């Protein structure tokens, strides 16, 4: 039987990364739970084995239940009945299988019924689910909204809601409104305090809410009357059991059909304040979105893997001119690029996840005791790294998923355009990844300050000092030359002194940054596991070289008049 975890040894490689020892040490608090919980690990090796067992179960369910159900789910989709969302029939089978396997609340502490898994193996599970069905991954992975409730909710709220999610109840984050898409400061869903019943009441409309008829919602609402910016917004917990919310519409989407996208109407719905008022957008949504963006990066890698698998299998089987098409340079070039993007994208995903694990664990520890000076420095370091890497992991992997799904169809030729083949569904599903939870353009905005303030350059310089295998040194030298071009490009853009010019060129700097970092990561991976990554390292560095040189040439030839020309052309098009 297929198993998406054991079939992909790259996942076990990333799970065994040296930084995982620190992740596990912090997450397990030196394995204190072993005295109270029979399933708690006793040491680092035992913890890794626990994670691998969970991933093995996830890989089995993904390959043998979720994937076989995916076509029917895609065709049926969710239904709207009397103001309620009804999942596609096979989605209920998926929910039942994952609940019985205990694959809910994975990252939550054992005292609430969770498995206390770090974000890194949880992200791997998310990748496996996405490789089987990206739509179901949306429903399943929204369980990580509970991280925000765990971090900012009261202990009473933790005890009330976290065990329910660990038992398999679903979640959603209700942020977007008809007039507030990426600009969440415009959210106007009204929250008023009901003095008589000692609770909050929510009134208004939310739109484009993934899994919008879930059991437990985190809701961004305006609690401060008369305000019109982010400072008047707070975060609330809405429990479906309380009533007061109906589904007005389910969107008819291009892809991810199994994932319901709902328009919700709140009518005097009872809710609980999560954390403090006025911090809903400024603090809590930012934390929520960072976790969601890592989830989309994992989803993107899962679909990239599925697209590569489909393209590879078809290329081996399909014959033209009496030979398998995988032997044609035009085809094996596409496959080699797909695999290189997959491996490099996966590398930055799990590097980011490890950074997030360390800073999140230290933040959690800081609520229990005072951190040592060394721990405070560690927290500062990994918070900065996580903030810098998250927009790269989300943006680049979502773009790579789109590219790989496109190439999978191209390898299939005319068959790829036929609905009976899986590639078309992967292509439709992937298209949303570079849009939701922050478009690629917004990831560029999130990353640009780390480009201009030298954060990425300092990380790159540090990584260039790492030893690589002897046969990879020529590739490392090529990357060093790219870094010099990158350094010059960054300086050139900064020296323009024009904010509009910096915004115009930001996407090119962003891609240069990401491709250089991923080149260095894949070289490190190939040094540690040459049998897995040497081929991808050779292909990826050459791809990055072509892109970085092209971006450098464009940037260095840029003049202020270019802005005028592009603006004029855009206005003419209007």
Provide structural commentary.
There is one protein chain. The protein has 574 residues and is of the alpha+beta class. The chain is 60% helix and 11% strand. It is built from 18 helices and eleven strands. The strands form three sheets. Strands 3, 4, 5, 6, 7, 8 and 9 form a seven-stranded mixed sheet that branches. A two-stranded antiparallel sheet has the order 1-2. Strand 10 and strand 11 (323-324) form a beta hairpin. Helix 2 runs parallel beside helix 10. It is globular. The model has no long low-confidence stretch (mean pLDDT 96).
Order of helices and strands: HHHEEHHHHHEEEEEEEHEEHHHHHHHHH
Tally of individual helices: 18
Quickly give the structural class.
alpha+beta
Question: Gyration radius, to the nearest Å?
Answer: 24 Å
Low-confidence stretches: none
> What is the residue-averaged pLDDT?
96
Largest sheet data: 7 strands, mixed
Strand content: 5-15%
Relative helix content: 55-70%
Measured distance between first and last alpha carbons: 55 Å
Shape: globular
Number of strands: 11
């Amino acid at each position: 039987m297929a198993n998406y975890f054991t079939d992909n040894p790259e996942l076990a490689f990333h799970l065994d990364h040296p930084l995982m020892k620190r992740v596990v040490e912090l997450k397990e608090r030196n394995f204190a739970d072993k005295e109270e919980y029979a399933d708690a690990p006793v040491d680092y090796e035992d913890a890794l084995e626990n994670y691998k067992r969970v991933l093995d179960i996830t890989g089995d369910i993904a390959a043998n239940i979720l994937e076989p159900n995916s076509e029917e789910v895609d065709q049926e989709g969710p239904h709207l009945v009397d103001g309620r969302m009804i999942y596609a029939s096979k989605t209920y089978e998926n929910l039942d299988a994952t609940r019985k396997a205990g694959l809910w609340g994975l990252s939550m502490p054992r005292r609430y019924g969770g498995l206390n898994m770090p974000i890194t193996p949880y992200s791997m599970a998310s990748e496996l689910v996405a490789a089987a069905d990206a739509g179901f991954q949306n429903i399943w992975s929204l369980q990580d909204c509970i991280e925000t409730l765990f971090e900012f909710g009261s202990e009473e709220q933790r005890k009330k809601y976290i065990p329910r999610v660990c038992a398999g109840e679903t979640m959603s984050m209700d942020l977007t409104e008809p007039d507030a898409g990426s600009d969440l400061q415009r959210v106007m869903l009204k929250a008023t305090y009901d003095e008589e019943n000692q609770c909050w009441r929510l009134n208004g409309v939310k739109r484009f809410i993934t899994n919008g008829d879930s059991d437990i919602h985190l809701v961004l609402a305006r609690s401060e009357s008369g305000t019109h910016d982010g400072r008047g917004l707070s975060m609330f917990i809405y429990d479906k059991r309380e009533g007061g919310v109906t589904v007005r519409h389910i969107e008819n989407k291009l892809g991810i059909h199994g994932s319901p996208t709902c328009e919700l109407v709140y009518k005097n719905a009872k809710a609980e304040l999560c954390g403090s008022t006025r911090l809903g957008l400024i603090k809590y949504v930012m934390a929520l979105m960072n976790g969601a963006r890592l989830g989309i990066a994992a989803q993107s890698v899962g679909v990239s893997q599925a697209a590569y698998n489909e393209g590879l299998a078809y290329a081996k089987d399909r014959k033209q001119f009496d030979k398998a098409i995988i032997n044609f340079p035009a085809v094996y070039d596409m496959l080699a690029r797909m695999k290189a993007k997959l491996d490099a994208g996966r590398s930055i995903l799990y590097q980011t996840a490890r950074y997030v694990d360390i800073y999140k664990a230290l933040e959690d520890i800081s609520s229990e005791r005072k951190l040592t000076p060394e721990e405070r420095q560690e927290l500062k370091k990994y918070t900065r790294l996580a903030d810098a890497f998250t927009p790269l992991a989300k943006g680049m992997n979502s773009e790579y998923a789109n590219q790989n799904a496109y190439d999978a169809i191209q390898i299939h030729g005319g068959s790829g355009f036929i609905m009976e083949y899986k590639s078309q569904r992967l292509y439709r599903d992937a298209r949303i990844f570079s849009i939701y939870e922050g478009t690629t353009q917004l990831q560029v905005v999130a990353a640009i300050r780390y480009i201009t303030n030298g954060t990425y350059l300092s990380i790159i310089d540090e990584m260039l000092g790492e030893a690589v295998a002897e046969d990879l040194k020529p590739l490392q030298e090529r990357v060093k030359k790219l870094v010099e071009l990158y350094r010059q490009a960054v300086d050139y853009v900064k020296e323009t002194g024009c904010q509009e010019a910096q915004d115009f060129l930001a996407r090119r700097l962003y891609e240069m940054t990401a491709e250089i970092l991923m080149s260095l990561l894949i070289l490190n991976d190939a040094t540690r596991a040459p049998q897995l990554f040497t081929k991808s390292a050779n292909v990826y560095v050459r791809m990055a070289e072509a892109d970085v040189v092209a971006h450098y040439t464009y940037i260095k030839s840029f003049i202020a008049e270019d802005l005028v020309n592009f603006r004029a052309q855009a206005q003419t098009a209007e």
